[in-house]
Amino acid sequence: MPIVHSAQVWWFPANFLPMTTTIATLLEGALEGRRLLEHPFYRRWEAGELKDGELKGYAEQYRYFEANLPVFLAELAARLPEGAAQTAVADNLRDEVASPSHLDLFESFAAAFGATDAAISPAMSALVDEYRAVLNEGDVAAIAGLLAYEAQGAAIADSKADGLRRHYGADQVATKFWDVHGTIEADHATWTMDGLASLNGDAQVISLGARRIADAWWNFLTEREELAAA
């Protein structure tokens, strides 16, 4: 069942249990002012207003996150006890690394816009560090942080793919990474929500874990805006 807030769509299980209802409320609070499709960078992407080189630079940095995500998921899955949370994370990891891996699909997007090797930027370095930080804080914080992006992922991916096709001359090879995520991220959000609910975690830990990752993603997009304006 989609829940719509302006341009953003989140996907949650159709039949909420009390704990998932609580998590949905906590997530809404954590994402207040941090819904990524409301960021000026993504609004410009959607409108076809990105300048030459912006997609190249974005791809060069996003690659670091995409390479780190399977590591994050593998470490989290390995330490979770058997149950819904471990299954959710393991299934997410399976999708990431199944051939062709999501990193391989991402490289097709990156190549289409001339991405080369580049040093990690301060904001992307901070984003990767935040995923490590919530992992170190415990299972509940880690899964809440994962949910902060996964709950937005399908709408973000669909928006990116549509913008790439309409405004930036991308073919189906270049958009496949985003097209795939537009299809599977709804499942990832549902799995992650159910897994987090099964842990019956502290509300403050859930809120803070989600907000840390939401802030880090927002700051990464703000860095893209600042570089474009320089």
From TrEMBL:
Q: Which InterPro entries match?
A: Haem_Oase-like_multi-hlx, PqqC-like
Gene Ontology molecular-function annotations? oxidoreductase activity
Record bears the keyword Oxidoreductase: yes
Q: Name one Pfam family in it.
A: Haem_oxygenas_2
Question: What keywords are assigned to this protein?
Answer: Oxidoreductase
Does the keyword section mention Cytoplasm? no
Q: What is this protein called?
A: Unannotated protein
Record organism:
freshwater metagenome
Lineage of source species? unclassified sequences, metagenomes, ecological metagenomes
